[in-house]
Write a structure and sequence with these properties.
With 169 residues, this protein is an alpha+beta fold. The protein has a domain at 2-79 and 96-122. The protein has helices spanning 8-21, 34-48, 119-125, and strands at residues 2-5, 51-52, 60-61, 67-75, 84-88, 98-105, 110-117, 127-129, 134-135, 140-141, 146-150. The strands form three sheets. A six-stranded mixed β-sheet has the order 1-7-6-4-3-2. Strands 5-11-8 form a three-stranded antiparallel β-sheet, covered by helices on one side. α1 crosses α2. The chain is globular.
Length: 169
């Protein structure tokens, strides 16, 4: 995990993008996570670089052309390795090369880049969770049908990005 302090500039970009977008169709928490989601994208840009394109299929295009879809959860605590990274059952067919996962503090002060997976790797390792299921390991109840994978199962990226071996498949 890589901690990232959320700057005023990052927050302003996220708020601007949120105003442009409006309410997201099939939003699990009825649009209340959109600023956090855009901050998650800013966190990934900070760690991996790339161009912020923000389409339905993917959010960022890396310098090597890989398309990155960012998945973000809000939190009130520092994430632990056994916490889940989730992909809603609505979003299992997005045309991206990798998923990158982030967490953002609810007060927007801090965030974490958690790691990444290819779609094939993610869905091969993830567990399906039905809406309303409770996970006692992190006191979490699912808001929608989704696929979950613990943070510790993600591929990691060092601060300098030297272990990133992203290649197009």
């Amino acid at each position: 995990m890589i901690p990232v302090k959320i700057t005023d500039e990052m927050f302003l970009k996220a708020r601007e993008k949120n105003s442009e977008m409006g309410l997201l169709r099939n939003s699990i928490i009825k649009g209340n996570g959109s600023i956090a989601g855009f901050l998650g994208e800013q966190i990934v840009l900070e760690v991996l670089g790339g161009e912020w394109v923000n389409t339905y299929e993917y959010d960022i295009v890396l310098e090597n052309g890989l398309k990155v879809e960012v998945k973000t959860k809000q939190t009130t605590v520092t994430p632990k390795p056994d916490y889940s990274c989730s992909i809603s059952n609505f979003n299992t067919h997005q045309q991206c090369d990798i998923y990158a996962f982030t967490r953002v503090m609810k007060d927007y002060s801090m965030g974490w880049y958690l790691g990444y997976c290819t779609p094939a790797e993610y869905f091969d390792k993830a567990n399906f969770v039905k809406k309303g299921d409770f996970d006692p390991s992190n006191n979490w109840t699912s808001h929608a049908d989704c696929y979950n994978l613990p943070i510790q199962e993600l591929n990691n990226v060092q601060d300098n990005g030297s272990d990133m071996l992203f290649e197009r498949t």
